[in-house]
Amino acid sequence: MRRTAAALGATIMLSACAWSNAGLPASADETTEDARDSDVILNMFQWSWTSVAEECGSTIGPAGFGYVQVSPPQEEIQGTEWWTSYQPVSYQIEGKMGTREEFAEMVQKCDEAGVGVIADAVINHTTGADTGAGTGTAGSSYALDDFPGIYGPEHFNDCREDISDYTDRDNVQNCRLSSLQDLATGSEEVQDTLAAYMNDLLDMGVEGFRIDAAKHMPAEDLAAIKSKLSDPDVYWVQEVIGAAGEPIQPSEYTGTGDVHEFDYGRQLKSAFGGSIAGLDSIAEGKLDSEDAGVFVDNHDTERNGETLNYKDGDTYTLANDFMLAYDYGRPSVYTGYTFEDFDAGAPGSTATEVGDASCGAEEWTCTQRLPEIQGMVAFHNAVAGTEVTDWWDDGDNNIAFGRGEKGFAALNNTEGEVTNTYRSSLPAGTYCNMAAGTDCTETVTVAEDGSFEAVVPAKGAVAIDVEHME
Question: What is the value of pTM for the model shown?
Answer without folding.
Answer: 0.93
